[in-house]
């Protein structure tokens, strides 16, 4: 398999991933859960000298990671993070995957165990058109949640306040929050104007 050239491997990060990258200290150790094609880890390696590893189940994504030169472990996140030691990493990232996890509390506790800091992002179910869609008798379908009710992988949808309450119950100290709508950062009325939320927290 021919590795990608640096030009091919480097692509402009999505705004939410760029924000995540800005929260990660140069030279730190990062674990990216559900790392997809490895774009975030490749960016962190090339621009912030991060030592990183990813966990991904999809075969195509694993191959893409290998082509980028990203270290990746093929595993189902539902099986947990038992292969990683306590505080083995500085930051663990779970990007746009939390809503598809069956054991939400378990994965958040595991993130807090293996790293000093965690970053999660998820679709914001509190986005105002979602409520309007439900009032009209239909489940919402948007760019951030493009699936029909019968084929969606999203099984645990939540609002910003829902997540913040759970974080408090798990003693995760929220340090940063950023919200986006179609790639644009939302600064005002975030709870109902944003389609995607990104949080950074400190482990207990």
UniProtKB/TrEMBL annotation:
The keyword Repeat does not apply. SUPFAM superfamilies: S-adenosyl-L-methionine-dependent methyltransferases. One of its GO terms (molecular function) is methyltransferase activity. GO terms for biological process: methylation. Keywords: Methyltransferase, Transferase. Transmembrane segments: none annotated. It comes from the Bacteria. InterPro entries: Methionine_synth_MetW, SAM-dependent_MTases_sf. This is 2-phytyl-1,4-naphtoquinone methyltransferase.
